[in-house]
Amino acid sequence: xxxxxDNTDDGVLRLKKIEVEQHKQNKIPDKDVQSYCKRYKTxxxxxxxxxxxxxxxxxxxxxxxxxxxxxxxxxxQNDIKNDYIITKEMSNLAGGLGLR
Length: 100
Prior knowledge:
The protein is α+β, with helices and mostly antiparallel strands and about 100 residues long. Helix content is about 65%, strand content about 10%. The chain is built from three helices and two strands; from the N terminus they run ββααα.
């Protein structure tokens, strides 16, 4: 017995119970499972690093606004976030901290 999400007309997500016979289920080879697992870990790691960098940039610009008068802190934060070299270095730093 398997439960799958079922969108109804009223917009509520419910679980739909379906019966799947054992011989009809497709088995994924172990090699593919391992590659999907590695891909998933890479995606999660990348997203975590990205969120960590954005949080640091937000914290740094808020701290900088307290010390220095800046007209548009959001524009500064976006400029820093869009700078390839700074983002790459922060990614390397976050990766190094994640390994410790």
